[in-house]
Amino acid sequence: MIVIQAKLIFLNQEDKQIVLDLMRRWSSCMRFAYKRLLEGYDRKTLKRDLQKPFDLNSRYVHDAIMKAKGVLESSRQLDNNPKKVIFGGRDLFVKLQKRHINGKAYEKLKIRWQEKRKGNLYSRGDKSKKGNLNTRIEVEKNGTFLRINVGERKYVYAKIEAGYKKNKRREEFLQEIGESNIPYSVELKLKNGSIYAYFAIEEEYPEIKITKEKGVIGIDINAYPDNISWTEVDEKGNLISYGNMPMPELASGSKDKKEYFRWQYAHEIVKIAKEKGKAIVIEGLEIKEKGKRGDFSGRKSRRIRHRFSYKSLLSKIKTLAKREGIEVIEVDPSYTSIIGMLKYSPQYMITKDIAAAYVIARRGLGLQEEIPDNYMKFLNALTVEELEELKEHVKKTVRNKHIKKKHLREINKAIEILQSLESKPGRVLEPLDGTSFSTYDFWRVLKVAVVTPLSPEKVPRDFSTLKGLLIQGKWRDP
């Protein structure tokens, strides 16, 4: 999807007011449709019944219902209560309810909320209608205009100003779209009294030519420090090469600056994959709690994740790779850091971030990670008493309350798993029948038993000390 933002300049104030009224009616129609969808009304009934009350043509009504349905489905996917959706934004609505805000500050917030609630209009593209019927781009001698259908055979024209400062390249691109039969969708939004248009077209990608047949490039993006770790593996999952790409520019600066550099780093990753002729494996874009895999937890982790916007970077890598005909594989990132730090960091003497990228790459090839024999022997010899001693040690030595809580929570979970194993003969390390424990839980126990004593204040970057345990099975040594 390619989206271009532009500001609309109206020939007179009357035309602008006509469009604002259209946006208000469309927004109201969308909210009304949302309520009816909650009550179980079907789309055909709504499309027939909503045209007259809101004085909209059938295409505008259809688009309003489609948007309402999208909001409803999104709310359900996020496990939110659809009945509690607030159009205009919950954050602004909550601020408006605070009694200590009054005067100009209150009026400013109220205007922002009203604009987000009532200042919307969406018109989908249609190839059969040569682009877009209700909101069409038209190229004239004196500029590029948007023709907006405001009623039966009534149109308002607004000049398209591509960007805050006139951007000729954007305007030329919009002209090409307008003069072709490519379907494009247009969304109008009211911001600070001005109307902005967002033109979106579906991008057609070339055929995939670079697949995982010869191996993959695994990508692990880290919020602290800001860097991308990558690994190259062959088709059998063997490590060939690896690297680390620092991203200091994403630690500070304006939104536009960070967006620019995200594109630059995405280009670098895709360039590596193209040169090596391998597919790219990334973490699934739907993951919500990336920070739990990093070095921090709580407020600090959330702050880092917010600043870093790793999801945006992954999305850009995915887009650029598709443009180059490179296969992109998304995998579940669960426990990739834990498995990487315990299994491959000491084995290949690499950092935990590169090791996590290696696990991601292998997972993209469909390979399973088995727990090494010496780790299995160590886990079978581990006792609940030893974990209880570790708990007391953490209580006495760890000062940071957030890290201490995290350690104690993990230790208690490990104790729970070991206690459930005591009734099994020989304490065989395998997923337990009739329980909720899986192989991943044993990796958690292993992390608690070997990493927490190694560095209780924070997750270490060097795991070479685990080599003796992993290869020689020495776990009783001090």
Question: Could you explain the architecture of this structure?
Answer:
The structure is a single chain. The chain has 478 residues and is of the alpha+beta class. It folds into 3 domains: 200 residues, no CATH class; 153 residues, Nucleotidyltransferase, domain 5 (2-Layer Sandwich), CATH 3.30.420.10; 100 residues. Helices cover 49% and strands 17% of the residues. The strands form 2 sheets. A 7-stranded antiparallel β-sheet has the order 2-6-7-1-5-4-3. Strands 10-9-8-11-12 form a 5-stranded mixed β-sheet, sandwiched between helices. The longest helix has 26 residues. About 5% of the residues have low confidence. One of its GO terms (molecular function) is DNA binding.
Query: What is the CA-CA span between the terminal residues?
Result: 57 Å
Regions with little confidence, pLDDT below 50 for 5+ residues: 287-307, 431-435
Assign the structural class, choosing from mainly alpha, mainly beta, alpha/beta, alpha+beta, or little secondary structure. alpha+beta
| Gyration radius, rounded | 28 Å
The outline comes out as elongated
What is the number of domains?
A: 3
Mean pLDDT: 82
What is the helix fraction of residues, given as a range? 40-55%
Strand order of the largest sheet: 2-6-7-1-5-4-3
**What's the total count of β strands?**
12
Give the ordered list of helices and strands: EHHHHHHEEEEHEEEEEHEHHEHHHHHHH
Largest sheet: 7 strands, antiparallel
Number of helices: 17
**What percent of residues are in strands?**
15-25%
